[in-house]
């Protein structure tokens, strides 16, 4: 594979950012989703309303937050509300277009595990837990998920379903009367998967430049479905790369802090 | 009616072994000083409640104060795992920890129910999640009007609620601003509330243009204690920034039982208060390098 002038993580963040429609209201998770959401805001989607579960609405951070309630988020927000209000009036109230989530593990129907690896009562690895994700996944009109792709993360069967994707596929979400449409894309460091319109099984629709479909298959713990016309993701533009790198440089500097 | 007392006295008089205790603060204004005082006074068998147990609950759990944890996200934000929480859950050290695990929306609703004097909180939540399979405190009821299936959970009613705020006046009225999480709800839901503050002032006024100012009247608070810097290493908007370097350093301190215990013994148990704790951890960086 020829050397690319950008990293796989940069391609992932940029590909995820491109999925954000300008003007959308966005409920943002910390980490990779936050980087992608802010990149979108700083490039093609300046009117995007970023909302973090700490209660900050319409926030415009100059550096990426390390925690979900950093002072930077409060000081640059249009409004700051209490957490019960955030979840009740804004999320449950159906006001959010797009939920943007990360995950520790994901399955073929884009269900998410962030709770445990192994048995719940005697886990081999205890993960942080649900946070806001179950209701973000349920109540936002659409959901994007971004995470790195490998066989530890992309598994045949989740040990624990923390947040619902498309459950066991088909019209399972509608039967359960989940308000939102659920995940519409999973963006990784290798490519982009979208749910099949009928079965809702994740289907590889785009590979990032220099990545083969076989490499994505190898990094997936189930027999990944392929779109008949597999696309190649457009490489990062100079602007996307420079805005992302500037953002990350500012962030690293701001978080170095005192010991 | 709030009394203005030393933190040591407030913890001694308000927090008993076996109590349900909630220290809240959603990444902002986390009452670290109060948590340390609970460790120093050796409280045991607590049911700890907190939406986002982070470093302060890692310390309380590792120090053996907790029997049960009611929570919805337990991690070191932006860093990774809480090693003491994981050791308690995965290996029962220093004691087994019972989990009553939720999602944020559920916890927030249960706090609001507690503040409202209701027996349970109601939300459109947990649908499709495995959490209700493992937590008998998450139940579903049908809406009597539409038939919609909604989640119900018991109200959170702590024996003691603890928060940190920017300011109080001399009567004990409290002012906080910025990200205020569930601080109002936990104070109103708790039988006894302790508030630590950065400063006590004659006239309670928010600086101009601060986001989301909230006043809690003195008559819903039990004790107000001045502890300057009492939210360190979290932040107090308008006073000091989050000490991200400490959160990173905590990952190494908490990773092993021995390094954790040595740290807690030296910097928390062996110090008399939070100011001495701050001097104690700062002195570490100034020690002459040890030669093997």
List its traits:
heterodimer, A: 259 residues, alpha/beta, Glutaconate Coenzyme A-transferase, ten-stranded mixed sheet, two-stranded antiparallel ribbon, 8 helices, B: 292 residues, three-stranded antiparallel sheet, 10 helices, 13 strands, globular
Please outline the helices and strands.
The complex is a heterodimer of chains A (259) and B (292).
Chain A lengths: L7 H11 L6 E4 L3 H11 L6 E4 L3 E2 L13 H5 L3 E2 L2 H10 L5 E4 L3 E2 L5 E2 L2 E3 L4 E4 L6 H7 L2 E5 L25 H4 L7 E5 L3 E5 L6 E6 L5 H6 L6 E8 L5 H19 L3
Helix pairs in contact in A: 1-2
Chain B lengths: L2 E2 L2 H8 L5 E4 L8 H9 L5 E5 L4 H8 L3 E6 L11 H9 L6 E4 L2 H12 L4 E4 L7 H4 L4 E4 L6 E6 L5 E10 L4 E3 L6 H7 L2 E10 L12 E3 L6 E4 L17 H12 L1 H13 L4 H13 L6
Parallel strand pairs in B: 1-13, 2-3, 2-9, 3-4, 4-5, 9-11, 11-13
Antiparallel strand pairs in B: 6-8, 7-8, 9-10, 10-12
Give a short synopsis of this structure.
Chain A is α/β, with parallel strands linked by helices and 259 residues long.
Q: How does this model look, in words?
A:
The complex is a heterodimer of chains A (259) and B (292). By secondary structure, chain A is of the alpha/beta class. Chain A is 28% helix and 22% strand. Chain A has a single domain, classed as 3-Layer(aba) Sandwich (Glutaconate Coenzyme A-transferase). In chain A, a hairpin with a 3-residue loop joins strand 11 and strand 12. Chain A is globular and about 45 Å long. The model of chain A has no long low-confidence stretch (mean pLDDT 95). Chain B has 292 residues and is an alpha/beta fold. Chain B has two domains: 226 residues, Glutaconate Coenzyme A-transferase, CATH 3.40.1080.10; 51 residues, no CATH class. Helices cover 33% and strands 22% of the residues of chain B. Chain B has ten helices and 13 strands. In chain B, the strands form two sheets. In chain B, strands 1, 2, 3, 4, 5, 9, 10, 11, 12 and 13 form a ten-stranded mixed β-sheet that branches. Chain B starts with a strand and ends in a 6-residue tail after the last helix. The chains are: A alpha/beta (259), B alpha/beta (292). Chains A and B meet through helix 3, strand 4, helix 4, strand 9 and helix 5 of A and helix 4, helix 5 and helix 8 of B.
């Amino acid at each position: 594979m020829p050397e690319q002038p950008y990293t796989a993580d940069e391609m992932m963040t940029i590909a995820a950012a491109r999925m954000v429609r300008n003007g959308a209201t966005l409920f943002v998770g910390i980490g990779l989703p936050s980087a992608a959401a802010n990149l979108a805001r700083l490039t093609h989607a300046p009117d995007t309303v970023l909302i973090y579960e700490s209660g900050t609405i319409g926030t415009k951070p100059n550096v990426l937050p390390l925690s979900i309630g950093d002072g930077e988020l409060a000081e640059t927000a249009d409004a700051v509300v209490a957490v019960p209000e955030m979840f009740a009036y804004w999320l449950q109230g159906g006001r959010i277009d797009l939920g943007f989530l990360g995950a520790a593990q994901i399955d073929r129907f884009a269900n998410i595990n962030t709770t445990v690896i192994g048995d719940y009562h005697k886990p081999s690895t205890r993960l942080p837990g649900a946070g806001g994700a179950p209701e973000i996944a349920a109540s936002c009109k659409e959901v994007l998920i971004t995470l790195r792709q490998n066989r530890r993360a992309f598994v045949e069967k989740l040990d624990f379903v923390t947040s619902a994707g498309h459950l066991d596929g088909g019209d399972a979400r509608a039967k359960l009367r989940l308000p939102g449409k659920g995940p519409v894309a999973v963006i990784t460091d290798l490519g982009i998967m979208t749910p099949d319109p009928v079965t809702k099984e994740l289907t590889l629709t785009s590979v990032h430049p220099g990545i083969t479909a076989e490499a994505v298959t190898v990094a997936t713990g189930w027999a990944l479905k392929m779109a008949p016309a597999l696309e190649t993701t457009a490489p990062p533009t100079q602007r996307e790369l420079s805005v992302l790198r500037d953002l990350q440089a500012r962030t690293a500097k701001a978080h170095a802090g005192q010991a | 009616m709030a009394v203005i007392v030393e933190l040591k006295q407030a913890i001694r008089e308000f927090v008993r072994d076996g109590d349900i205790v909630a220290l809240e603060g959603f990444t902002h204004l986390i009452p670290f000083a109060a948590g340390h005082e609970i460790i120093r006074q050796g409280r045991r068998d607590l049911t700890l409640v907190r939406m986002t147990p982070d470093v302060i609950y890692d310390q309380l759990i590792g120090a053996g104060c907790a029997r049960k944890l009611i929570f919805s996200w337990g991690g070191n934000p932006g860093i990774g795992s809480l090693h003491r929480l994981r050791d308690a859950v995965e290996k029962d050290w220093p004691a087994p920890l019972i989990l009553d695990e939720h999602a944020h929306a559920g916890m927030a609703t249960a706090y609001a129910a507690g503040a409202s004097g209701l027996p349970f909180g109601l939300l459109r939540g947990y649908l499709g999640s495995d959490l209700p399979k493992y937590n008998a405190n998450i139940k579903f009821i049908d809406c009597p009007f539409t038939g919609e299936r909604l989640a119900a959970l018991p109200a959170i009613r702590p024996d003691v609620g603890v928060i940190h705020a920017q300011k109080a006046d001399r009567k004990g009225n409290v002012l906080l601003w910025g990200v205020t999480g569930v601080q109002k709800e936990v104070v109103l839901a708790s039988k006894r509330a302790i508030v630590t503050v950065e400063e006590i002032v004659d006239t309670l006024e928010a600086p101009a243009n601060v986001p989301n100012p909230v006043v809690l009247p003195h008559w819903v608070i039990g004790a107000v204690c001045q502890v300057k810097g009492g939210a360190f290493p979290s932040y107090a908007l308008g006073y000091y920034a989050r000490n991200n370097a400490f959160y990173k350093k905590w990952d190494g301190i908490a990773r092993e039982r021995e390094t954790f215990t040595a740290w807690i013994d030296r910097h928390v148990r062996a110090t008399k208060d939070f100011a001495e704790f701050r001097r104690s951890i700062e002195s570490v960086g100034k020690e002459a390098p040890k030669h093997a």
